[in-house]
Amino acid sequence: MSSKRSSMRASSLRPANPAIRAGSGLLLVALLFLLTACGGGGGRGGGPITPPPPPPPPVSISEAEAARFLTQATFGPTRADIARVREIGYAQWIDEQLDPARTPVTLVLPHLQQVVANGLPEGDLGQAHRRNAWLWFAANNRDQLRMRMAFALSEIFVVSDFESGQAQIPRVADYQDTLARNAFGSYRGVLKAVTLHPAMGAYLSHAGNRKASADGKVVPDENYGREVMQLFSIGLVERNPDFSPVLDAGGQPVPTYNSAVVAAMARVFTGWTYAGQSDANYGRVDARSYAPMQCHPAFHDDKPKTIFRGIVISSGNDCAADLEQVLDALSNHPSTAPFISRQLIQRFVTSNPSPAYIQRVVQAWTASNGDLGRVLRAILLDSEARTASSDPAYGKPREPLLRIAHLWRAYQAKYVPPADGSLRFRAGNTGDLTVSIAQDSQRAPSVFNFFEPDYRVPMANGSQGAYAPELQIVNESTFTTGHNQSDALLWNYATTAAPTANTNAPVLDITRLVQLADAGDHAGMVQDVNLLLCGGGLSPASVGTMTRMLDSLRSQGRSSSERARSLLLLALSSPDYAIQR
């Protein structure tokens, strides 16, 4: 299997805060131990119209329950969002987020274009501007559910800015925006938009793909034809609605395709290239285009193509008609709904959804013909999402990038950009967070994402434990550099003062924590962190440890602000925070 891969780098920041550093090793041990354990109507005759009764009030939702829901559905709860969920309920909150008239769509490319129009030289614009802008929008903008969904889709339909130069910045940004625009549309619509986007065409090399030559010296590129099946739709083996594998008479999983199907799929994806090219310059490298790719019949394989399940794609040299047929075949394949639904559940709720949970979401998919908004609604409102299981395998490791956005949201980070409006942070490795936390926006090392959905925790006896995709990028190095990245963002940018212009990172508002520290209310400080960072999920042991740490720091004469920052850093490093439950 060919794919794009890049090596990971790791580096260290400055040593962590002395008040916390000594406990980091114990925290890591504890984390690893935890994971491996694991109608009214009007009357006739023009009489007065009786108004309909008011809707029933939503079921009472506690602060902790609202925070837990928002941890799944957003980049992190805020006090305002907690109050809103408690006021209108989970379902109505989702409805607000699904409605673009009430919750406008966040787009990154227009922001970058405006920054250049405001005076930033185009040659100074880097991918870090795009990545930092997306992260800042994720931490601040209203369309939280859409941005979370688009982020989840970006980890399935992977395009990376690795090995891309300055010219490709608008293209990658538009790909990101394309996922946002289509986040609540049909799965088939997303698949078509992804297939024709030049960022994907360049990344998986079907831009400029040609039919075979008579002499055999030119053969269609198979990269996209294979990955669109393996990663973007039907997977490697056929699946039942509950994601269990379909078995043959010998009890073996039934493959969804073979090498002949890959070759046929490659022929389907011939004849597409960057918008605006003539036949004479077909396939010529175009780093700047971000318009959908266009069909050139002269370069499309016009022979019938037999793909999976014996389906024949045969529209002559009409590559657009062939594409529509194959999109129908991929979207209607019975394995697509469970294959994609399970990954979406993993991104929002739990790494190990039960077969029944997957099947209920697949039922929503089937009933709505793959409407992703309705699928996401089913994921978040399912009983397994709304009630945390006591099963140690329930929940999901928090993605490193989401941790940063979560912290900024919880403590109302502020940033005063330069006059051109650019968002370019310089705290620790914020220019490229893959250096410290092994993850950044649209910067996966390969088409297989930062981590794979089937990664499982290795057990002491050599067997495979629970599924935990995010832990594929967690090791001693990334734990330490991630801890230090959090330290860099907290120790230098958490304050009670208003931000000033051109700071190197957003400034966290820890006024509430400092006021509680001034009052000696260490229990109140821990309660605040428990709600906003852990959704009320801190164990009694962790609550006791954090409270004793604060008491100890006060006895040493440490300031209120130091106590507040130390508490936040300890919470972010705790096993309770590591697993979203």
TrEMBL record:
InterPro entries: DUF1800 (IPR014917). PANTHER family: BLL7424 PROTEIN (PTHR43737), DUF1501 DOMAIN-CONTAINING PROTEIN (PTHR43737:SF1). This is DUF1800 domain-containing protein. It comes from Thermomonas aquatica.
